[in-house]
């Protein structure tokens, strides 16, 4: 068996929706034993949310399936004193705890960092929130689109004559997940050196601002906000030709490229009057329209071939389904699948990180609620009689059809 980099690392995962589950899936892909602790019966809220009211296999949310492979599910009623006893017993041998409840919720249940630290001083406890643990926004809901609006990315996206535009994916949450992993891995390395665990705190607000640092530095140091273009220019701070352009049968992107070379390919020498750095910014919308008129006369593949031959930075604009069929995506083996107990074959995007000695892999489907409750309780040392009693009285749970 090929070794995995995080084998032997046990994660108690109390997180839900996207931020925390994506972080723990990244660890699970690398071999960590992630035990997802969910509400009996209902489980993670993402189990009941889906796009376009479509369910994989008729009953599984694609949103949940996307972020929960390679994990085991244990269903526990966290309000039960006996459930807390189980968790603290498991904490004795755990390495990481992840949670993204609102600030203070876990501590009120006796499941805060200080509670875990008393049982296991080596524990790394990671909390994710919308806006941090205190301050004027403490009671606000911390949701992806709301944070995009608060941090400038929405006001900088889209065209000037349209409403501020959210990114078409859970960008804030996914940045938050990456920051969780960054903090956890750093804390685990520190633990190897010092023998001490610690608390890691991540919030969506800080993450989104940090990942827009070039835009923030520009705006703050010049005292000027970006102005969105009214055309297909791809960034509020960029000049022409940077942006998206139409063709006869689709759209292409053109990034930072010599304007003179571009108009030579398009056979538009009359546009040389724009070839000046200040003009390329000041008249970027006008220039975009002139360029778009000319790119619109080409078939997409023919234009791309001509632009690439001239070393113009360009590419196709593809839908999600087209991206899944992309030849480079196929070459990298990025689209994979697994067998789910009720949904059947589930197509997924595989791990994005390569490891020469300890490659990640998909070894488990996203679990059913409480699918591994008995298994995990047995591993924790509880006898069959106790487990049956807890399943009957609601302290623990397992799938209804099991």
Automatic annotation (TrEMBL):
This is Crotonobetainyl-CoA:carnitine CoA-transferase CaiB. It comes from the Bacteria. One of its GO terms (molecular function) is CoA-transferase activity. Keywords: Transferase. The keyword DNA-binding does not apply. Gene3D superfamilies: Crotonobetainyl-coa:carnitine coa-transferase, domain 1, formyl-coa transferase, domain 3. InterPro entries: CoA-transferase_III_domain (IPR050483), CoA-Trfase_fam_III (IPR003673), CoA-Trfase_III_dom3_sf (IPR044855), CoA-Trfase_III_dom_1_sf (IPR023606). The keyword Ligase does not apply.
